[in-house]
Structure formats: structure tokens, C-alpha cells
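Morning!

This is the sequence you dropped in the shared folder:
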Amino acid sequence: MKVSVCCAAPRDLTADAILVGVSEGDALLQGIASRVDALCGGLLQEIISKGEFAGKLNEVAVVYLPASGARRVVAVGLGKGEKLDAEKLRQAAASAAKIAAKGKAKTLAMYLPDQTGGGVAAEDAAAALAEGVLLGIYSYDVLKSKREQKQLSEIIVVTTEPSAMESAQRGANRGVIMAAAANMARDLVNAPANHMTPTHMAAKAEQIAAESGLQYEVLERADMERLAMGAFLGVARGSTEPPKLIVLRYEGNPGGETFAFVGKGLTFDSGGISIKPAENMHLMKSDMAGGAAVLGAMQAIGQLKPKVNILGIIPATENMPSGNALKPGDVITAMTGKTIEIISTDAEGRLILADAVAYAVKLGASKIVDIATLTGACGIALGSVYSAMITNCDKLAADLQTAAAATGERYWPMPNHDEYREMIKSPVADIKNSGGRMGGVMTGGLFIGEFVGETPWAHLDIAPTAFAESDKHYQPKGATGVAARTLAALALLWGTVN
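The structure's back. C-alpha cells below.
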């Protein structure tokens, strides 16, 4: 996809479609919308006056142009003007781009919204527009024998102010990088488990490292045995696929602190001996969405180059039933020496993350964020609207919420109380890997927290948000790529304070 920025009046644009935002409640078109309407001979104003188009968020209207450099105008609702933000622009751009692509548009010119009354800064608006389009037109068809031909091949971010060109270019570049990160994570999660084994995941990480200027390392089974990673290896021993502990390193602040993103990389989760029901088990290829988010974030970080040091760590394995698999009632020993009673082999993500976050501490991480499709309980609690967050550090939680606000993703803080830790005490070991159905989001997250020591840490449970059941604005059905953009935004945030 070619993405460019230009400064041009509507009459001077050459594109298959011109996208312009319209605020809800404006009886008369103003600013750039009024100028674009002049190309339409007033038709856009006419359908507004007749009540056929109201400018509600993501509402789309198409007006065809009889004689112009563009074939049509795609007007998209931005909602109430005073409530406009980057997320609404992101959604609106995706909604309009889908309609333009269905109309076989190959080039789409998108006007930045007017800046009167504040609004969204040019850089952030350009980023949101580019991001929204690229996220919205995403599809996964790489394994089809007849792949769909992509209609939209070029997007142009347009401003009428020459002074905004530099900011718009920076924003468009950032939007492209962020969208590419999420779309790459989507590709990994959408891939069937036989096309995305731990070995495949490690190979993808190596490719990302080479292309984005990152350091790459992978720990094999023998390395994990040497480090006494009994929790990770306990899960991995049920599968014939070799486990991989993937480590990517970005150094943008030599001599400064190092922060770690740790993503669950269960490339297929059968539940092990505590086997899952057959219905929808095929979707458990998505149990590596946390690891995919970390890979996407690290790709973006390598390209955005913030002044910060980031480790990306992904424990990758399968969870399978076999004669060598973990059994309920077994006791294993994690890297830290802490012993774990296995209550359910389907509570495996927290086991591989226990050793992975402990390894992050060993590598010197001074803050850790782990990301995982950890619990079905998270969906019961929050539906598919929010991911859950548990943390031992209020400042880290605040930073995450700031980053999430920039990306439009949502993370709901869950309680962190000692009563939940009591629920995972074991009579035969130091800790058990399941506290039962009650409070599962908290007990699952806090289990991981037992292995970070005093290090500031946050856990993101993305189980209900990693896979979408239907299309919605910039989110197509299937993998969402959730957390990839938020983690990259968090690295950018940390880079501004170093």
C-alpha cells in the first residue's frame, strides 16, 4: 500500500475517491467539507438538508462527480464535533475506506479534519486516518488458492495548510507503522496451528529482528533445562514440537533502564490432559495472541526508534495431551525455585509466563508487562469490550492507560488483593496453578505476579479481545492484533521521559 501526504485544494486532487469527514448536527457544511461539496454541485449539502445523511459516527454517504479529478466523494460521519478524537477518526476512516474499496477505488485521498475549535492535532489526525484505513481493509487470505484482488492500493493524506505538511507526514508514517504491527500480529494469530508452530514463530521473530534492527536470540530446550525452567518445560513436554523462548532486544537508550514485554506464545492449546471441549477448539490457534502482540510491538518499536530499551520475550510451545504430558496433581519447580501444584493442565499459560517473567527479571528488566489470552473468566467479567489489567504499580498502570488512550484500546483495572493470593495457596507445594472458577481473572494474573519479585509489573488478559466474531469499523472478523499498538505506544511514551 502506497501512503503519501500532500497539500491541495479539492479541485486539484486526482484520485478515485475523496474522503471528507462531516460532523453530526451541522445543518450547513463548513470548512473543508463545504469546499469538497462545491465539487459535488451542492449534492452533499442537499442530502444533509433532506435528512438522508446526518454525520453520525461511521455513517457513510457516496456522491458521484460528473466531471472532476476524482470520481466520487465519500462523506463519513465523525459524530459530534466537540467529541472528535483520534479513535473516532480511526473508525471513520476505516468505515469510509471499506465503502470506497467496494466501489473499486484504487486511490483514496483523505482530508485532515478542520482544526477550528481545537480538534485533533494534524500529526495525530494523519496517523489515525492512515491507521484506520490500513486496519480496516485488512484480510487474511494467504492460504486460499484464489486470493481476492485488493482494490485499494494508494492512500493520500491531504491538508489545505502548507504549515501542516511536516506534522502530517510524521503522523502518516507513524500510522502506517502502527497498523503494520497490528496487521502482522493478526496474520500470526489467524494462521493455522500447523503453519504457526513455535519454530515458525521463532523464524518470524528472526525476520522481524533483521528488518527492524533488533537483536535476536532463541533459547532451545537444552538452554531452558540449564536454567531450570520447569514450569515452561512442564507444559512443553506433552508436544512433539520443540519449545522456543524467543528474545528480541531493542536498545534506544544505551545505559538506561530496560523494560520487558512478555507475551504468551501457546501456538495451540488443546488443554492438555484437562482437554478442552471439541466445539471451537480450532480457535485455540489464537492462544499465542499475546506473543503475536509482542512481536508486532517490537517490529514497530524498531522502526519508530524511541529512546528506550525494550526486551520482547515470547515463550512459545504447544499444550498437548500425551503419555509424557503434565497430569493434574503433579508438582513442578519453576526457574525461581518455587514449586507449583498442577490443578488443571488447561491453566498452562500462566506456567510458561512464570518462567518467562522470571527470565525477564534475570535479564535486568526494571518494569515488566505480560500479555496473554489467559482466562475465559475475563470474557465473563468484561465481555469483548475490555481487556483486563492487574498490576502491582500504579504508575505503570497509568502509563498503560495513557498508551491505550492513544490507540483506542481499552484495559480495565482489576483488584489486586491478598485474599486472591490465598486462593492459589497449595497444601502440597508453594502455589497451585488454579484457584477455581471464582475470581479466575485475578488468581490467574496474580499467579504470574508471584514470579516477578518486587519488579513493577502489569498483566494484560486479552482473552476476550484477541479474536472478533464479527466485523466492526477497523476490526474485521478474526484476529484483532490487540495490544500490539498499545505496547508500541507505551514504548514511545517511555521514550519521551528518558
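Headline: The chain has two domains: 2-140+151-181, 192-497.

More detail when I'm at my desk.
O.
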